[in-house]
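[stage:ingest] chain + small molecule (NAP)
[stage:ingest] validated
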Amino acid sequence: MSDRIENVVIVGSGPAGYTAALYTSRANLEPLVVEGFMWGGLLQTTTDVENYPGFPEGIMGPELMQKLRDQAERFGTRFLTDEATELRLADEPGGIHEVVVGGETIKARTVVLSMGAEHKKLGVPGEEELANQGVSYCATCDAAFFRDRVILVVGGGDSAFEEAIFLSKFGSKVVLVHRRDEFRASKIMVDRARAAENLELKTPFVVEELHHGEGPYERVATLRNTVTGETEELAFGGAFIAIGHEPQSAVVRGQIDVDDEGYVKVQGRSTRTNKPGVFAAGDLVDHTYRQAITAAGSGCQAALDAEWYLRDTPEVPTPESIPHGDLAEAQWAATRS
Ligand code: NAP
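[stage:predict] done
[stage:export] tokens:
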């Protein structure tokens, strides 16, 4: 185990994590980002982002994430492209937190949690069996496999519509199935979908089951009309499930307060969690707005909260926590003056 005590360890790397890294690196806190294997979060799997301010022509999700990462790196952010498998969070103000990555323990005075959210599963028979064999959660990743085939999209939010519109450029036909007649998606997305010739909006239907069809690349969905109760079969090549997200809070559950849906709870308008020196931002916290720009904004808040905490909270001095290096020595001296 290294003796170094980090000022800030950021766990997660979407817009929230990289913005927290940008701000804390510009504050000379030398943040370390544990960015996961799929760095960049869910935006890595999206196409055009047209509502992130500053990009009037729009920008592709992966390109935006690369830019945010580069910007944080420019000011000295360090990255570990690995997962945090365990967090041991101190209870007392000034306590040292531990983040386990690849079997190594990293010590930190503050931790910013920004693990984001993952795609929700339908939970119907056949979904797991057909995953990566016709069932996908990422149109940008898998659309090309289903060129000129019938493509099923499930969901009624912006994600489902974004995927369906994108997929309509690949599939012979796209059928978007949604359980209600009203859509949660923004009007502009619904209008665009309605304008696409090969895109059908099929409501109010739920998917009851997914299974293999006759041929090797044919799959079948059993759909049930939620009003009449009648069922019908729909043959398709690929299905894309886009029914929302689940917060990735498992690694801190039991230590950090979460709500009924697993979103990390923060205090008031701050990013402070129930543990001193531990802050949370982005989709891990937010089930209301969930936009790239709001996640980035909350990453900025988390960075400022961490910076102020470091400024105002003396480190609990333990022989083990005596840090090394010029910056760490200066901090150590400050706690004793
Ligand atoms: P969402 O807005 O929560 O929509 C999820 C959709 O899936 C809802 O229509 C919901 O139906 C349906 N659903 C949920 N569970 C289901 C189940 N078990 N079976 C069948 N249907 C189910 O999620 P999202 O579309 O992923 O969007 C998340 C956030 O990201 C939103 O704030 C959205 O605006 C944002 N986003 C923005 C863009 C963009 O602006 N370009 C793109 C993507 C996402 P009900 O409506 O009946 O609940």
